[in-house]
Amino acid sequence: MGLFRRGARSRATDHVADDAEASDAIDAAPDADVDAEPDTELDGTDGPAAEPSEPAVVVDRPAPGGPWDVSEAPDLGRRVDLGAIWVPGVSTMELRMEIDKATEQVTAVALNLHGSALQVQAFAAPRTAGIWDEIRAEIAESVVKQGGSTDDLPGPFGRELLARLPVRTAEGRTGHRPARFIGHDGPRWFLRGVMTGKAAVDPEAARELESIFADIVVVRGNEAKAPRDLLALSLPGQVAPAGPVVAEPTPSLDPLTRGPEITEIH
User: Fold this and answer.
1) Is residue 83 within 8 Å of 97, Cβ to Cβ?
2) 162 CB-near residues (< 8 Å, 6+ apart)
3) Are 44 and 137 a contacting pair, CB within 8 Å?
4) Residue 224 in contact with residue 93, Cβ under 8 Å?
5) Does residue 55 have a cis peptide bond before it, meaning omega lies within 30 degrees of 0?
6) Is residue 234 within 8 Å of 68, Cβ to Cβ?
7) How far, in Å, CA of 42 to CA of 50, rounded?
8) Percent of the chain at pLDDT above 90?
């Protein structure tokens, strides 16, 4: 079930289509250990962890003001210009950009910080209605069909999805890894974030990544786009990188697909 489009010639990759793609979800957590016991919950650290008795979703503080449309925050400030997305720069944050091999198009940006990862993509949306409710339901349906589970819960950005994605361990058995899907409907655009690692289950670990997501600026542009088309990303431009940018043959940080990346250290 395709959830998003990259264009007429690109395959839809933002869905969990089968066990192989679900296994790719574990790569979203930095330094993740895939040697899990069957039916155990992995937390993105070096070993299995007990499944939390209650979903770890923060609901007791006011919702942030963003993410922002470029009309609301026209200045780049300390953000990194990645084309359709301006990402706040944070000390010690590792920024990775995923590139589609076939089209050489930058398709996603992921931020690694303190044992957690936030993968972000921006998409075109209708002028008159948001699409997050629809997308969230489709993601939940796809995860459940694979043997995973989801909880649709309130969070700091509105409704969000806490998922347990099925993953095959090194021994060939089945385990699960948590992922937290957040979204924001903007004017003619939709921003999706996926938290993995500690931030998927620990509210304290999620706070920094939530703050980053809330301060992202989306540059939709005026060109006509079909709903769910991916908004074009680019390598850092207006703000000079704080560290070297190198190509790395590392696993994808998109929990729903795989591809080569470029890494930048801040």
Assistant:
1) no
2) 55, 56, 57, 150, 151, 153, 178, 179, 180, 181, 200
3) no
4) no
5) no
6) no
7) 8
8) 51
How do residues 205-255 score in pLDDT, each as one tens digit? 999 999 999 999 999 999 999 999 999 999 886 343 443 333 333 333 334
161 CB burial (10 A radius; 0-12, 13-18, 19+)? buried
Query: Who's near 236: CB < 8 A, 6+ residues apart?
Result: 80, 81, 82, 245, 264
Q: For residue 64, what pLDDT is reported?
A: 53
Find the DSSP H helices in 60-218: 132-145, 203-214
The model carries a pTM of: 0.70
**99 vs 5, 107, 110, 123, 222, CA distance in Å?**
15, 6, 12, 16, 24
- Using DSSP, state whether 60 is helix, strand or coil: coil
Q: Report strand pairing: 217-218 vs 68-69.
A: parallel
DSSP-derived letter for residue 233 is: B
Write out the DSSP string of 14-38: SS--SHHHHHGGGGGSTT------T
Those residues whose C-beta lies under 8 Å from the C-beta of residue 168, and which sit 6 or more positions away, are 19, 23, 174, 175
